């Protein structure tokens, strides 16, 4: 990747439209960009920034690339259980907040119990790398719960599906992704 597209925040050696770099992304993310919903805004507004995989964890990334945690969002895979039925869902919250799995997520999904999905299960089900899971390109039947503070953020940083690289996109675009529901107080 050698683009020098300006980014709304951060200091990156390389940034460009993610749709132009689909070969650098996991297959589900590349497919989602190819089928980008019109309601989410122009696909060229989704930027891929190059980064060192060793800096993929949120706090380390923010420090290394001069990104404020208030614009960084985490995508967390949750397993919600009711009886013998398990529903996997993705939840997106700002890095400055904490996902309310036990109340907000459990209640919204109508589950008796909800918890973070085991790493191996999350990686296998999404086709993405742990530490890079993104709301862009999730399995089509999954609920996508997005905290309202994320969609109110002009531009947010999320995973790219891989530990190398991140996506920057308008927070409001996440509300237009398949199966997305904006939830007030999904996080505390």
Automatic annotation (TrEMBL):
Record-annotated membrane-spanning stretches: none
Pfam families assigned to the protein according to its UniProt record, in alphabetical order: tRNA_edit
SUPFAM superfamilies: YbaK/ProRS associated domain
InterPro entries: YbaK/aa-tRNA-synt-asso_dom_sf, YbaK/aa-tRNA-synth-assoc-dom
CDD domains from the UniProt entry: PA2301
Residues of the YbaK/aminoacyl-tRNA synthetase-associated domain: 55-175
Name of this chain's protein: YbaK/aminoacyl-tRNA synthetase-associated domain-containing protein
Organism: Streptomyces bohaiensis
